[in-house]
Amino acid sequence: MKFYNREKERQRLIxxxxxxxxxxxxxxxxxxxxxxxxxxxxxxPCDIYYMAQQSDESIQRMQLAxxxxxxxxxFDSVVYPNWESLFTNLNNVLxxxxxxxxxxLPYLVKSSQSLPSVIQRVVDSTVNRKYHxxxxxxxxxxxxxxxxxxxxxxYGRADEILKITPLxxxxxxxxxxxxxxxxxxEYSVWGGVPRYWELRAGEKSFxxxxxxxxxxxxxxxxxxxxxxxxxxxxxxxQAYSILSVVGGGSNRLSEIAARLSKPATQLSRPIDNLIQxxxxxxxxxxGEAEKNSKKGIYRIADPFMNFYxxxxxxxxxxxxxGLTEQVYKGFESRLANYVSSEWENLCRRSVPxxxxxxxxxxxxxxxxxxxxxxxxxxxxxxxxxxxxxxxLIGECKWSTISNPVSxxxxxEQKAKLFPLAKxxxxxxxxxxxxxxxxxPNVFLPSDVLERLQ
Length: 453
Known about the structure:
The protein is of the alpha/beta class. The chain has helices at residues 7-17, 35-40, 57-69, 83-93, 105-111, 115-125, 140-147, 170-176, 180-190, 194-201, 206-215, 224-232, 237-247, 253-260, 268-276, 303-312, 316-320, 324-350, 404-416, 445-451, and strands at 24-28, 48-51, 98-103, 131-137, 160-163, 280-283, 297-300, 365-370, 376-384, 390-401, 425-435, 442-443. The protein folds into three domains: 7-163, P-loop containing nucleotide triphosphate hydrolases (Rossmann fold, 3-Layer(aba) Sandwich), CATH 3.40.50.300; 170-347, Arc Repressor Mutant, subunit A (Orthogonal Bundle), CATH 1.10.10.10; 350-451, Trna Endonuclease, Chain: A, domain 1 (3-Layer(aba) Sandwich). It has 20 helices and twelve strands. The protein is globular and about 80 Å long.
């Protein structure tokens, strides 16, 4: 698959590895997001890339030495009794500077707990080290524990720390060669993970992709969450259960606790962990403090995980019987409503990316509560301008609207009743799947995608 939108990360890697001073570079993030591809697109022909395996420590050293010997002849003719001897000898035999990349570092650390301390000594004490060191890993928690925790051996020693996250929705249009509205539908299922896009591109249609890759019990992604959790958690059952409950429609902490028959206090740590890993998010109404708000609700943050726990998990028994067509029909009947939810997320995310009517806005949120008439009211998009003078209020519809002017007038009436609008100049906008006639301040899928580059 084509290499998409990692130019900023790539330039930072190039700058670091072009330095005359030896650098320590950390690259981490969720599996399948393109970390290895990014690194391979940055390394020079003389550099060394090693993909670690889950094996015994001595075998790992032997494999790394063998990989190095492809660039430095005879390097593997020596038996290295420990990691420090290998790193030291590499520095001794090098005639020209290069970059050594160790991918999936957590595999090495699992079999050699002392390795981070060895790397610390190498980074701290090697005089005139001739090689840059890139350490990469998919276990987000382990990589953070090795680098970001104040008690970690490598804390404060990295020259670059790059967390690789899923791609924005804009790039799926090119990857799958589809129209803007279908791009929104595809992103609602596959999210921003390049490997999922690659698998989807190999199928004839949206339907066959979902059935063959996800719903079929032999599909590549049929057990994807369990594999992801293995990277980051000692115990994945609770995480799986929480996401299953949230995917089933329980969004408040009290509801989640009741469904799991556990005190809410026992769920704080696993929920915070899922938020940190990017699988879950806590949403509060616009104007509420995220930490203190009692109105917070939980949503699955990643589109693919949301799709998986909303449609696959409740139907596991039927899928085990091979009833993929039956499950797909159920999914298809709810598709428009499901996509509309992700459409709202994308619309909100697009707001701060570029100015609207020449005005820059901050991060957009939903709002729900009682209006100035003490009536219940919801707003899909609310954002304050960076100069605090304007308020953007938007409504999202995943449907074709024949009369956007009428819909805009209704939104303007709602905006006048918004309790937090006092003293602000209001700008109303519509986010629509399609319109019969052009209208100002209306954003279509192509507009939203363009903002999400």
